[in-house]
Design goal:
This protein is α+β, with helices and mostly antiparallel strands. The protein folds into two domains: 63-187; 214-347, Glucose Permease (Domain IIA). A hairpin with a 2-residue loop joins strand 11 (331-338) and strand 12 (341-343). Strands 1, 4, 5, 6, 7, 8, 9, 10, 11 and 12 form a ten-stranded antiparallel beta sheet that branches. The radius of gyration is 41 Å and the shape is rod-shaped. Helix 1 packs across helix 4. The longest helix is centred in the middle third of the chain and has 88 residues, at 126-213. It has helices at 16-38, 41-105, 116-122, 126-213, and strands at 236-239, 244-245, 250-251, 255-258, 264-266, 271-279, 283-289, 294-304, 311-312, 317-321, 331-338, 341-343. It contains four helices and twelve strands, in the order H-H-H-H-E-E-E-E-E-E-E-E-E-E-E-E.
């Protein structure tokens, strides 16, 4: 539990300037105490930055590995197709060589291999013998060419087999690296979830401490405004109360309204600014106290237009939309709390 030594509430007869000074002193004490317990803003910002950077790097590595794996599989498919084509050619040449060898074995070419004595005693036409010798030479050259092509095809088959093995090994290495990167990604996501949960706990402690101070009182009870409020910014409602918040999967205690950067963020009701500073996970954060222990919280702002202690009127611009605090989208994260507990803002606002 957060224990803060608070200054006494502003005196009834004190001037507005004195009351404002006392208020700032009390809120500064709260913020410093929370910072002391949670570490410096620089350390907090670095923790979130390092976690999100590691997630980004792991995702980028996985994307590149996935692309390499797809390319290797495509190349392996082309190698396999080329290998099947060469195997068909080898098979056909083997059949042709087998037929040729059978022909030689059966003496089909014996007539094409006369020696000089047989030529002299045969009485055959020498021109016919010349033609047969020419045909024999052609057949010999064709056989030699066929055998050379077969040797080349067999060598190509061996090369393709080695290439296929090499690509398979590279693919296995990529898959192992992908598993390692996926494990790293899951680990970093767990770390980011832990950091964001710590952020939420930090905000909850600050809100609890602010709620105990009873800083603000207004003429109209805030509880009477239920159903009459308007959302603080125009935009698209992309996250509802209780839904998983971002990649960390923590339960949202507010809503996110997507809007272009720099749009005015307006106070939902009359109140007083009780926090206006950067906070880990929420970026430029502004909290308005509306009395009766009701607070409205505006996070991820590009800029804060109000300072601690400033009074605000209903609909008055108090900040501009942004994506500070490491938020993935531009817009506004908005919460409402009573006695420190978050509740669904949509039950209190008019959406049209």
């Amino acid at each position: 539990m957060l224990i803060v030594a608070l200054a006494a509430p502003p005196a009834q007869g004190a001037s507005q300037e004195e009351n404002l000074k006392a208020l700032r002193s009390r809120i500064d004490a709260l913020a410093k105490d929370v910072d002391k317990k949670e570490g410096s803003q620089r350390e907090a910002r670095d923790a979130l930055r390092d976690s999100e950077r590691a997630i980004s790097n792991a995702n980028r590595a996985l994307t590149r590995l996935g692309a390499s794996a797809r390319e290797l599989r495509a190349e392996a498919g082309r190698v396999a197709e080329r290998r099947r084509s060469v195997e068909i050619q080898v098979s056909r040449r083997e059949e042709a060589i087998e037929r040729m060898l059978v022909g030689w074995a059966q003496g089909r070419t014996a007539a094409f291999a006369p020696d000089a004595l047989r030529v002299a005693l045969s009485g055959n036409d020498p021109a016919d013998i010349g033609r047969r010798l020419y045909y024999l030479g052609q057949i010999s050259r064709a056989a030699a060419s066929l055998l050379a092509e077969q040797r080349a095809a067999l060598a190509e088959l061996e090369r393709l087999a080695n290439e296929a093995r090499s690509r398979a090994e590279r693919l296995r290495a990529i898959e192992q690296a992908s598993r390692a990167d996926r494990d790293k990604l899951l680990s970093e996501r767990r770390e980011r979830r832990r950091v964001l949960r710590a952020d939420e706990a930090r905000l909850a402690r600050l809100v609890e401490a602010i709620g105990r101070t009873g800083i603000t009182s207004v003429s109209e009870p805030f509880s009477a405004l239920r159903g009459r409020l308007r959302l603080p910014v125009r935009g698209e409602l992309t996250q509802r109360f209780g839904a998983p918040r971002g990649a960390a999967g923590t339960e949202a205690k507010g809503v996110f309204i997507r809007a272009p950067e720099g749009q005015p963020v307006r106070s939902i009701a009359r109140g007083q600014v009780v926090y206006a500073d950067w906070m880990r996970g929420f970026g430029n954060l502004l909290i308005v106290d509306h009395g009766e222990n009701y607070l409205s919280i505006y996070a991820n702002n590009e800029s804060l237009l109000k300072e601690l202690g400033d009074p605000v009127a209903p609909g008055e611009p108090i900040a501009t939309t942004g994506s500070s605090g490491g938020n993935e989208e531009t817009g506004l994260y908005f919460e409402m709390r009573h006695l420190g507990r978050a509740f669904d803002p949509l039950r209190w606002v008019k959406l049209k």
